[in-house]
Specification:
With about 400 residues, this protein is of the alpha/beta class. The protein has 16 helices and 8 strands. It has helices at about 10-20, 30-35, 45-65, 70-90, 100-120, 165-175, 190, 205-215, 230-240, 260-265, 270-275, 280-290, 295-305, 310-320, 350-355, 380-395, and strands spanning about 120-130, 130-140, 150-155, 180, 220-230, 250, 335-340, 360-365. The protein has an 8-stranded mixed sheet, with helices on both faces. Helix 9 (about 230-240) links the parallel strand 5 and strand 6.
Length: about 400
């Protein structure tokens, strides 16, 4: 599915964020008007136009707030947060770019203002993690304190905390579930503020989130469900192999081997050079190909930045640990494995996960017939949530 852009990656990112309209995180007119001014594949132009849109929307939120129009203010703060996050998205080719931090903080601040205006059902939390904390939001069905089944949700390769409400918090609350969202190493503020890169052993990240959730009287600890999005399809599967307090897991979408998936995203001769031990040639091949491919340029710059490495060879080497080969059979609880028919990142990976699972399992394929063929069903959140939460409802009842 492509809207405005012909470029695969720009089109995907626009549709991804357009999908947030369903829960109030963006608007069609603002988004299309902004995207229409952006040159295909131009990262700087992308930043300029989304930053302008974010500041324009934020200023309107502030005016509404100053005049006591709190519903309008809250809605505009949410949209401004999305647009600041979009502006920052392609900046990671220069890890020292000060705009990474300034735009991220602007997105966080706008979202916090919206959360404050929402009231006590949106709670900012800090999850104890090693020698620091991880930022999160706990979204409650209501403020009664009643213990409820709870979704524990995290993103993947490029996600940030402020977008996770639209993927999980909103549909969970509508259906009577609480939802704990958080950013781990390599994601959101932990990467930008604390310089914590990704780690493959994600159970070390998820178990502290479960421990925190179980301290809350409004969490039904016997009914916890884990959902991981995008690369989180690997991260959540890895966590589920070691963390057995979940009644169910959703791999959104399934990822079996990240290194294997990079074979399809990077030039074949670069992979061959890497596997032959020629890191310098691998780097040169990738750098030569990046200007003509937005997707490749983004995957590489995002990978080097979020994995905390300096070269393509280092990124590839670290990615090898992100696989389920030796641990997938340790997963015990029921799993929903999702697949997008036109996934540009993890083609074939969900089926591999499904085939290797030995726990109770369900496979859900999403196609262009429903406009749900994009990676992580971007742009089709209503249908995606119907499938996911109907499965969760039935699994917990059984």
């Amino acid at each position: 599915m492509k809207v405005v852009f012909k470029d695969d990656h720009f089109a995907f990112e626009l549709v991804r964020n357009l999908g947030f309209m369903y829960y109030g995180g963006s608007d069609l007119g603002e988004s299309v008007a902004t995207a229409s001014k952006i040159k295909e594949g131009d990262f700087e132009n992308w930043f300029d136009e989304w930053d302008k849109r974010a500041r324009r929307t934020l200023s309107r939120a502030e005016v509404s707030f100053s005049k006591g129009h709190l519903v309008s203010a809250r809605e505009a703060y949410l949209r401004a947060s999305t647009y600041f996050r979009m502006a920052e998205f392609y900046l990671h080719g220069n890890p020292d770019d000060p705009r990474i931090l300034s735009e991220s903080r602007a997105s966080q601040a706008a979202y916090k203002k919206a959360a404050d205006l929402t009231g006590p059902t949106w709670e900012r939390v800090e999850i104890p993690y090693e020698n620091t904390t991880l930022p999160g939001y706990f979204y409650k069905v209501d403020d009664s304190g009643k213990p409820r089944p709870t979704i524990i949700y995290h993103g993947g390769f490029d996600s940030s905390l402020e977008e996770l409400f639209y993927y999980a918090g909103a549909p969970a609350n509508r259906r009577g579930y609480n939802c704990l969202t958080f950013d781990g190493p390599g994601q959101g503020a932990p990467m930008r503020e604390q310089k914590l890169p990704f780690r493959y052993d994600w159970e070390k990240v998820v178990t502290p989130a479960v421990d925190y959730a179980l301290t809350r009287p409004d969490v039904d600890g016997a009914n916890l469900v884990q959902i991981g999005m995008s690369l989180g399809g690997y991260l959540s599967a890895r966590a589920a192999a070691f963390e057995h307090r979940f009644r169910a897991n959703v791999f959104f979408d399934g990822v079996y081997d990240f290194y294997e998936s990079l074979h399809k995203m990077l030039p074949a001769d670069a992979i061959a050079a890497f596997e032959a031990g020629d890191a310098e040639r691998c780097q040169k091949i990738v750098e030569a190909a990046m200007p003509s491919s937005t997707s490749l340029r983004w995957v590489v710059t995002q990978g080097l930045w979020s994995f905390g490495v300096k070269s393509v060879a280092e990124f590839l080497e670290k990615s090898k640990a992100f696989n389920m080969r030796d641990v997938i059979k340790q997963i015990r609880s029921p799993c929903l494995v999702m697949e997008a028919a036109a996934d540009i990142f993890f083609e074939g990976q969900p089926r591999h996960v499904y085939n290797e699972l030995t726990s109770p399992k369900t496979f859900a394929e999403f196609t262009a017939e429903d406009g749900a063929e994009n990676h992580c069903q971007s742009g089709a959140l209503a249908f995606k949530d119907q499938v996911v939460f109907d499965w969760i409802d039935e699994t917990l009842k059984s």
